[in-house]
Amino acid sequence: MNSSGTVDVVLIGGGIMSATLGILLKELQPDWRIEVYERLGELAQESSNPWNNAGTGHAGLCELNYMPQAPDGSVTADKAVVINEQFQISRQLWAHLVSIGALPEPNKFINSTPHMTFVHGKANVEYLRKRHAVLVTQPLFSGMEFSDDAAKIGTWTPLLTRKRPAGQKIAATRIASGTDVDFGALTRFMFDTLEQQGVTMHMNEQVVGLKHKADGTWNLKLLRHVGQTRTSINARFVFVGAGGGALALLQQSGIPEIKGFGGFPISGQFLRTTNPKLVAQHQAKVYGKAAKGAPPMSVPHLDTRMVDGEMSLLFGPYAGFSPKFLKTSTWFDLPFSIRTHNLGPMLAVARHNFDLMKYLLGEVFASRNAKLKALREFIPAAVSDDWELITAGQRVQVMKHDAKLGGVLQFGTEVIASADGSIAGLLGASPGASTAAPIMVDLLARCFPDRIEGWKPRIRQMIPSYGTKLSDDPAAAAASLAATAEILHLSN
């Protein structure tokens, strides 16, 4: 353990990304001194909170936005396969942690929940048929079923077909190996293990400044909210896993790699029911097709959720706009994030995303009746009194410079790292939490190039498919799915 006044690693933010990176580093370098700083009084209260995300365990099984139809009508599986490969890495890491006792019984954070896709209308039915034909040949999508028969779909989940107009053309796919993940619980369990391993947790303590010192370390200015005391700490490596707060901290760091980046915040709401009669009739996560102009994170879906041992149904999200970058932050986040170097890209994004702006305005002013109408696209017999409206977390989409368009709005996640690898942070949103493990493993390679070769054997013990593609080897894919399913008590 480092005995000097400089710690080895500081993790900023108490969410799934910091927890995952901390777990990996402690497995690889158990002697390193790691400190965690969370500005709130509890862990996993922003994007990792189970009510602030859908907990889908994004694997490309049901999300249509990963397989858009090309102008010529063709459909390719490339993006969906990449997302699934990434999720398998996370799944393997969780299985490893369960097997060594670093995580508790898996049903406390992950449960089998079939993943479905549901569409209506002739053109959408034919698109889904094509999508299924492409995916069913992929090793990681083995077992996916397709049906355009209402009676068959009704056996999968009765709520989709009851009182649906006779003669309406519908279709669905279903795969039993999908999951529901409580990322809040998973995050807390990981941090419990880290604390037992000597990692120091600092709650109600916020990093308010970063300065790169001549010796290559970082000096972090800290504000302790209890008592409003100010302190500082030095670190050899800093990870900014602060969700929507990451952009401001990376800007404060002054690293040139953050230039040209901005953030576009999108808020959301869900309708939720705990009515046991409804919950008993729907055991699946069902994704539909996004409205024109809707961002991928706003694709409508009806999800079975298991949170703190209670099952419920969640429908949404209904997108909206707030200038906040975090659910518990300030209305000045967006204006305070504007710099001379990102103003041009941000204005270019506004010019080129009129459909998105129009969609968000419509969502902001949508009435409860409009929200119920969207729900009834999935559940024709839905009754208003069964459903309550809850506010989801903020998502900050990446805006960055583009040589051709001036600026682009990027859906997904992006790691920003300094040239010397001494600081890195994560920007963006979905699929985020589901792909935390591969994102953090890639970060290790970028930020610790002098150590990664020595770490690889241990990484492969935690993540057996590391450095390979399961989708290229049907036997390896089947073996991996079966092995992790057994340890995590999942359907395969």
From TrEMBL:
<dbReference type="GO" id="GO:0008924">
    <property type="term" value="F:L-malate dehydrogenase (quinone) activity"/>
</dbReference>
<dbReference type="Pfam" id="PF06039">
    <property type="entry name" value="Mqo"/>
</dbReference>
<dbReference type="InterPro" id="IPR006231">
    <property type="entry name" value="MQO"/>
</dbReference>
<keyword id="KW-0560">Oxidoreductase</keyword>
<keyword id="KW-0816">Tricarboxylic acid cycle</keyword>
<dbReference type="GO" id="GO:0047545">
    <property type="term" value="F:(S)-2-hydroxyglutarate dehydrogenase activity"/>
</dbReference>
<dbReference type="InterPro" id="IPR036188">
    <property type="entry name" value="FAD/NAD-bd_sf"/>
</dbReference>
<protein>
    <recommendedName>
        <fullName>Probable malate:quinone oxidoreductase</fullName>
        <ecNumber>1.1.5.4</ecNumber>
    </recommendedName>
</protein>
<keyword id="KW-0285">Flavoprotein</keyword>
<comment type="similarity">
    <text>Belongs to the MQO family.</text>
</comment>
<keyword id="KW-0274">FAD</keyword>
<dbReference type="GO" id="GO:0006099">
    <property type="term" value="P:tricarboxylic acid cycle"/>
</dbReference>
<comment type="pathway">
    <text>Carbohydrate metabolism; tricarboxylic acid cycle; oxaloacetate from (S)-malate (quinone route): step 1/1.</text>
</comment>
